[in-house]
Amino acid sequence: MVFKDRLEHRAGIVRDVLVDRSIEAVVVNKKDSLYGFGYFEVQVSPNDVILAIKIIQEDINFE
Q1: Which of 3, 34, 37, 47 can bridge 42 by disulfide, Cβ–Cβ 3.0-4.6 Å?
Q2: pLDDT band at 63, cuts 50/70/90?
Q3: pLDDT tens for residues 18-61?
Q4: How far apart are CA 15 and CA 31, in angstroms?
Q5: Is residue 7 within 8 Å of 40, Cβ to Cβ?
Q6: Where are the domains of the chain?
Q7: Is the dihedral angle over the CA atoms 48, 54, 60, 61 positive or is it negative?
Q8: DSSP E strands, the chain
Q9: DSSP letter, residue 13
């Protein structure tokens, strides 16, 4: 897991950026469907974790 957020579209943006950089990434829904709490995770293979975190920190800003 390299990123998590309560908003699905933010996790999707992170996944898309990583895929554009040739890193396989998936969004996993960890949100409880009954109560609505939880988050969405972006997961990558263990070999890509460090590069993915670097890309997220340097190239993605939601503010």
Answers
A1: 3
A2: confident
A3: 999 999 999 999 999 888 899 999 999 999 999 999 999 999 99
A4: 17
A5: yes
A6: 3-59
A7: positive
A8: 3-5, 25-29, 40-44
A9: H
